[in-house]
Amino acid sequence: MLTRRSMLRAGAATGVLAAVPASLVIGGRPGTARAAESPFAVPLKVPTPLRPTRFAGHDFYRLTTREADVTVLPGTRTRVRSFNGVLNPLIVAERGRPVVIEQVNSLNVPFAMHLHGGHVPERSDGHPKNEVKPGERRLFRYPNEQRASTLWIHDHSHHSHAENIYRGLAATYLLTDEFEENLPLPKGQYDVTLQMRDAKFAANGTLEWDVHDFEGRNTILVNGSPRPYFEVAARKYRLRLVNTANERPFLLQLGDGEEFTHIATDGGLLPAPVPTRMLQLWPGERHEIVVDFGRYGVGRKLVLNNTFPYDGETTEVMRFDVVRTAGDPSSVPGTLRAAPDLGTSTVEREFTLSFNPRTGEHLINNEPFDINRVDIRPRLDTTETWRIVNADTQFGIPHSLHPHLDHFRVLDRNGKPPAAGEAGLKDTLTVMAGEAARIQLRFTDYAGRFMYHCHLLGHLQMGMMGQMEISR
């Protein structure tokens, strides 16, 4: 059971973020992060895209979920749960070209593969009722008929998901399209995914798992390496930031507050670029930024800091070392991609998120998840407005909401319009204790049962999930 002490810690931590106005964390100027001794000892591992088998207009992959011994901390070996024996695999897909993945489960626990942010049919969404049991396999088909965006693959089994993700089962899935390819944004080796999370290790390199011990996970990993350094050229880079941690938020600042450009969120490109000096990244979220290292010159070192560390932690996430010159034909256009018009809402719903200290459950509208209960029944092509209320004022706990199937637009936070960095399409939204937000969404194409839930995975494991039956 989640203890009151843990809740008070969460509340104290949340208060720091809650005190930071949205205009600051999405497009504003922060203070200076506290200095700390540099821990950078290992290079960043930049993932190479997996090579598919191509047939009949499809790309085919086989992903085997299995344990593997890998080097995470220098000089030690760590038993992880992996796809094909590696951490942080990368799939690059093209809009209009479907991907088929055969998931083979060689773990001793179930696994339900979910493409987070994917617009996919029910049978390929990773519903807990379709979890792949140990020794079994299943085909997942992703149509890729949606806008280019940064997605990720993770477990959605009924009880094993939080530990599976914590132990390493997170893959990045980049969907490209012609519209985005025609923009002069950085490409190729200058388009880099940074998958961020935290972990707790024993002295011998063993991963330590406790669903409640979020504050004990003091090692920050980027692409599976502890606080690495990345050698870059003096030119622009597109950095895709993916938070795969169970509970940890990042409040990211480059150097002493250097400006960078926010260009995309969960559902792809923003309507326009947003110059910023700080960016908030919650579990499950993706943000894309462009950093111009050409401004600094060869020899400069820039630290990416998390200005929201737990007690006793250093702030460093990773370091960028500018080591060479390079030509740079890339640029960031003044206009990127307009958000779609979802129409006029004809249905309104309210979702109250709360913690019950008596039972240790996290609830949506006073109910814990029940796989045999349908909570709401949306209809396809009907625009809805959802009001998300965080009622956890007693303990100050943050919560988020992630609906499956389609992205949404943020209408307002506490009655105020969203900041420019939330003007695009989203699929995960965090709401602070005592606050509320409204989103607009429209489910399209695929009927069936889909989930909506908090993406702080301990909360999800303790009941904060609902089920919707979408009909035609």
UniProtKB/TrEMBL annotation:
Residues 67-174, 351-470 form the Plastocyanin-like domain. It comes from the Bacteria. It is an enzyme of class 1 (oxidoreductase). It catalyses: 4 Cu(+) + O2 + 4 H(+) = 4 Cu(2+) + 2 H2O. Its EC number is 1.16.3.4. Residues 1-18 form the signal peptide. InterPro entries: Cu-oxidase-like_N, Cu-oxidase_C, Cu-oxidase_fam, Cu_oxidase_CS, Cu_oxidase_Cu_BS, Cupredoxin, TAT_signal. The keyword Oxidoreductase applies. Keywords: Metal-binding, Oxidoreductase, Signal. The keyword Transmembrane does not apply. Gene3D superfamilies: Cupredoxins - blue copper proteins. Belongs to the multicopper oxidase family. Monomer. This is Multicopper oxidase CueO. It comes from Streptomyces iconiensis. The lineage of its organism: Bacteria, Bacillati, Actinomycetota, Actinomycetes, Kitasatosporales.
